[in-house]
Amino acid sequence: MSKFSRAIASLIVGAALSVSPQAPSAVAETESKGAALVPEINRIVEADTERLQDIFKDIHQHAELGFMEVRTAGIVAAELEALGYEVKTGIGITGVVGIMKNGEGPTFMFRADMDANAVREETGLPYASTQTVKNAIGYEVPVAHMCGHDAHTTWLIGLAKTMSELKDQWSGTLVLVAQPAEEPVEGAKAMRDDGLYETHGVPEPDYFLALHTGPFPLGTVALTKGRISTGTDHIDVKFFGSGGHGSSPHHATDPVIMAAMSILQYQTIISRMTDPTETSVLTVGSMQAGIDNNVIPTEAELKLKLHYSTRDIREVMVSGIERIANNNARTYGITDENMMPTIVEKGYAPVIVNDDEWMDHIWEVLKEAKAVDALVSDQPVVEGNALAGVQIPGSDDAFLLIEGIEGAKGAYIFVGSANPEVFAAARAEGKEFPFFAHEPNYVVDLDAIPWGTKIATVLALDILGK
């Protein structure tokens, strides 16, 4: 998720999960099943920390782009199989699902995304990625985990082991999803289109959790109720013309002009067709047309990125894109239906709306687990257990995995993963964060690996614990 805003800093709650056993009275009085098992969780995770950190460094060093996560998926599958999970592979090309059925009870799903970014790493870490690959359209690109998906995947592996060792303490079904291709927002859709539930028989979740690294201090967690993100679409629009000599445009039908006029008019969808109190963004990330200076090409393609706060806003934007493209084609002489613009909707992510009731409960669980001992905030926005809304303009396709599943409760939580000293030094220099997602110097501190594993395990056991 390339996707933070200044608002995310306004709700950071922190301190680490206790690394030593709670006092007997504290454990006895807690109402959270997950919090009550913190001593056992700590014992297991701390004994497994070095191994998990080695897995994280290995995945980081061998970063893979979306739908190319063959090696990473293999690591996940092997780890889950060794722990006795029912493992399903190749869902949505490279997706992996591990299922552990452990008696009667709810179904809890944890999702981790596996793909990296087309970014050249500049962290200087001894395990930095030096990978380069040909991307989906044939360009040679650098590849690095500059968004923390390597940590997410390692948290899934850590959760899998901890839950297997505590199997006598919980009842229900645990579903672990290692998802491909979050960055192009195509992976969750690919898994659903491939019949994640219908064909592959993965149990539908009652509770769904996704964690994401954040460039704020290790030992902190950012929580919010309600809408936390925008929805998004990746759309390609291709215009067709007859082409010709650059000196004689009257003998050609120029698709570049159709595309250029559409670029300008697309912004009127935002300024004149959508509610200004809602979020709507339409970015043209690429225009591709022609090769030579003196040749009018036969095709021109636009690659669009949409963000929106509601499904209704999405419909206004998508229908507006189609109308403008078609009308510009007709304006410049296109009448043959075979030459009308084509519109391809590639990636999609719904708006993430955290379940209010469950987020209130998570707040209490993390406090009981001593995971939320302090509020670190420029402008405190927490009153009692009511979590104020923190909304970011970016997107993540996680909640597409539960779209349309009646009664499923979803939670998407940011987990601080920056070294506290590095964060403090950045703030002293007047910076908001020391680095940001998708920047070449994005670093997940190694101590974030056990931290995220503990958070995920506490929340899973709170739902599934006996």
TrEMBL record:
Keyword Signal set for record: yes
Record's keyword terms, sorted: Hydrolase, Signal
Xref: InterPro entries: Amidohydrolase, Bact_exopeptidase_dim_dom, Peptidase_M20, Peptidase_M20_dimer
Superkingdom, taxonomy of origin: Bacteria
Family annotation (SUPFAM superfamilies): Bacterial exopeptidase dimerisation domain, Zn-dependent exopeptidases
Signal peptide feature range: 1-25
Record's protein name: Amidohydrolase
Pfam families xrefs: M20_dimer, Peptidase_M20
KW Protease (keyword) present: no
Peptidase M20 dimerisation domain mapped to chain residues: 235-331
